[in-house]
Amino acid sequence: LTEVPVGYEMEVTGPSGKYLYDVDRGKRVLLLGAGSGITPLYSIANYLLEGGIEGADVMMYYSVRTPADIIYEAQWPKMVSDFPNFKFHLTVTRAKPNEWHGRHGRISTDWVRQTAGDVSDAVSYICGPTAMVGAMEDICRQLGLPEERINTEKW
């Protein structure tokens, strides 16, 4: 775009695709992301919280390799503070013990159960690398979510 001449006409279309939040599918939402896969999940969370979807219950689990990989780092504490219906859980998989004092390891079925309880009535959105998405789909099944409430985006 930086090389397009001034006055050049372009056609722009709106967002498209199948990875979209639909309020009719449920207001209790489980978001599972890794790395830059957090970006569409952040948008879904913002839509639910900032858009004032009444009765929304948003649980987000985010996995990164190192603390330096955390995207939207400054926004997470503010969202937790501003919205009591937003629960944010962060884990780091490859941090050295002296550089990270939070949770270490991957997102797991036990961790989700311990922190969120029964989520079998939630709709899930998963985004991240292919292997991570496959593992999160398995976790969602173990948590009792039916296939029609497991939504994925992978690369």
Report on this structure.
This protein is of the alpha/beta class and about 160 residues long. The protein has helices at about 40-50, 75-80, 110-115, 130-140; strands at about 30-35, 55-65, 85-90, 105, 125-130, 150-155. It has a six-stranded parallel sheet with strand order 4-3-2-1-5-6, with helices on both faces. It is globular and about 55 Å long. The protein starts with about 25 loop residues before the first strand and ends with a strand.
Short description:
This protein has helices at residues 38-50, 75-82, 109-116, 130-142, and strands spanning 28-34, 57-64, 86-92, 103-104, 123-128, 150-154.
- End-to-end Cα distance: 25 Å
The chain-level structural class is: alpha/beta
Strand content: 15-25%
Order of helices and strands: EHEHEEHEHE
User: Given the structure, what is the number of helices?
Assistant: 4
**Which segments are poorly predicted (pLDDT under 50) over 5 or more consecutive residues?**
none
What share of the residues lie within helices? 25-40%
Strand order of the largest sheet: 4-3-2-1-5-6
Largest sheet: 6 strands, parallel
Shape: globular
Mean pLDDT: 93
Q: Care to count the β-strands? A: 6
Tell me the Rg in angstroms: 17 Å
List the helices and strands and how they pair.
Elements: E1 28-34, H1 38-50, E2 57-64, H2 75-82, E3 86-92, E4 103-104, H3 109-116, E5 123-128, H4 130-142, E6 150-154
Parallel strand pairs: 1-2, 1-5, 2-3, 3-4, 5-6
List keywords for this structure.
155 residues, alpha/beta, six-stranded parallel sheet, 23% strand
